[in-house]
Structures are given as C-alpha cells and as structure tokens.
Amino acid sequence: MRLKKYNLFLVLAASADLDMCWLAIRVIFAAKQTIPRMLNVVLFGPPGAGKGTQSEILLQRYGLVHLSTGDIFRYNIKNTTELGQQAKAFMDKGELVPDSLTISMLESEVVKHPDPKGFIFDGFPRTSAQAEALDRFLNTRNTSITCMLALEVDQEELIKRLLNRAITSGRSDDADEAIVRNRIAVYNRETAPVAGYYQECGKYRGVKGVGTVDEITSRLCAELDAFVQ
Questions:
Q1: Burial 123-147 (b: 16+ CB within 10 A, else e)
Q2: Beta strands of the chain (E only): which ranges?
Q3: Residue 8: C-alpha distances to residues 2, 20, 28, 138, 226 (Å)
Q4: What is the DSSP string of 23-59?
Q5: Among this protein's residues, is 171 annotated catalytic?
Q6: Pairing of strands 147-152, 204-208
Q7: Is 183 a catalytic residue?
Q8: Domains, in order of start, for the chain
C-alpha cells in the first residue's frame, strides 16, 4: 500500500488484522506530524538576478535563517577560529577550500539554531559534489533541501542591472562591462550546472526574475507556499 500524500510505503501481510493495520497507520501519521517539516531553500541565480533583495524578503516572510557561505567564511577567518585558520591556509595558497571544510563551517552555524523553521542557503552549493555533500549533512539532522528557487534573467538584463548597480552603490566590480560579462560567463560555466542536480531530484523551480520586486516576490512565494501548506 502506498500513501502518496505522506510518502509512505506499507507492506501488509495477507493475514494481517485490518484494525491493527489502521492502528499502525495512525501511529505513523502521528509520529510524522510531531516533526515539523523544515523549509530549506537554495536561492540560486547569476550575479544581478536579485538574490540579495529577495532573500531578505523571504527570510522575514517565512521566518527562515540565512546561511551565506561568504559571511560564514569571513566570520571564521576574522575571528581566527580553527575552521577559519584551516580555510585561510588553503586560500593563501590559492587553492579551493575543500567541501568537507565548508560543510563543517555550515554545520557550526546550523547548530546555533536549535529549532529553526528552515534555512536559505546563499552561495552554496556551487557544484553537484557540494550539493551531494549538503544532502548528506542535512540527512544527519533528519531534514533535506526542499527546493532550489532559481531566478531566471537573460544576460543583457543582468549586465544592465549590474552596470546600474555600479552607479547607485559604487561597487567597482560592477563598473567594467568586460568584467561583468566575464563574471556571468564564469557563473554559466562553473556554477549553473548544479541546477541539473536539483532538476534530477525534482526539486528545481525556475522563477522569472524580471518585473517589479513585488511581482518577483509573488512568484517565489507561490512556489514556496506549495511546500508549506
């Protein structure tokens, strides 16, 4: 017997007592309902897609915790934690920080929130190997990634946004169009393929990232609301 709504499989013997079967089902339902389902979201998109703006809104609306690998790295390195010193040793040699070390940093942040409603992962994972490592870590905490929300914006719109951001925010890395185009090319080559991992898992949700902030937020929330109802 399969109960699709609850993703349960029950194997019943032909001679099983029907009342006992239904009692077992009720016990399983009760157990599942006592464990709140966390909303764990990978917010994804190229530079200029609007992830920063939308993540702040989603954090407030759904009561989630923001986990930015960039912020976590900077905190650990600045405070010379053991993990930060290990990461800095790799970075000083121009080497990539191993996924295992990045996961350890994420874990150190996750344990600071003993009863979260869920997390928004920002800047991680960037590769399929990292996505698999994140799945293994979350599995140890009896949870998983709910979905990847990917803001989809065409390249010319991204370039226009980033060049405009250079004017309004003074960010020098956004001021040179050649540099901006290269950043997007690097994203398409090295980071975008991780979306395929979540597509294979049935967890990819592409969202049109063009329009007003409110319009884009409404599209994102429509996807998330399907998981929290």
A1: bbbbbeebbebbeebbeeeebebbb
A2: 2-3, 8-9, 41-44, 65-68, 119-122, 147-152, 204-208
A3: 6, 17, 9, 20, 19
A4: HHHHHHHHHHHTSPPP--EEEE--TTSSHHHHHHHHH
A5: yes
A6: parallel
A7: yes
A8: 1-35 (no CATH), 36-228 (3.40.50.300)
Active-site entry in 32, 61, 136, 171: 171
**How, if at all, do strands 119-122 and 65-68 pair?**
parallel
According to DSSP, the residues that pair with 122 across neighbouring strands are 68
CB 113 within 8 A of CB 65: yes
The pTM (predicted TM-score) of the whole model is: 0.76
* Residue 126 designated active-site: yes
Distances (CA, A) of 5 to 12, 32, 104, 216: 19, 12, 34, 29
Q: Where are the beta strands (DSSP E) in 54-196?
A: 65-68, 119-122, 147-152
Q: Is 61 annotated as catalytic?
A: no
pLDDT tens digits, the chain, 229 residues: what are they? Answer: 444 333 444 444 445 566 654 554 454 444 344 345 789 999 999 999 999 899 999 999 999 999 988 889 889 999 999 999 999 998 888 887 888 898 899 989 988 998 899 999 988 998 899 999 999 999 999 999 999 999 999 999 999 999 999 998 877 778 889 999 999 998 999 899 999 999 999 999 999 999 999 999 999 999 999 987 6
Is 181 known to be catalytic? no
- Give me 198's structure tokens: 């979540």
- Among 37, 165, 181, 203, the active-site one is 165
Q: How far apart are CA 63 and CA 48, in angstroms?
A: 24
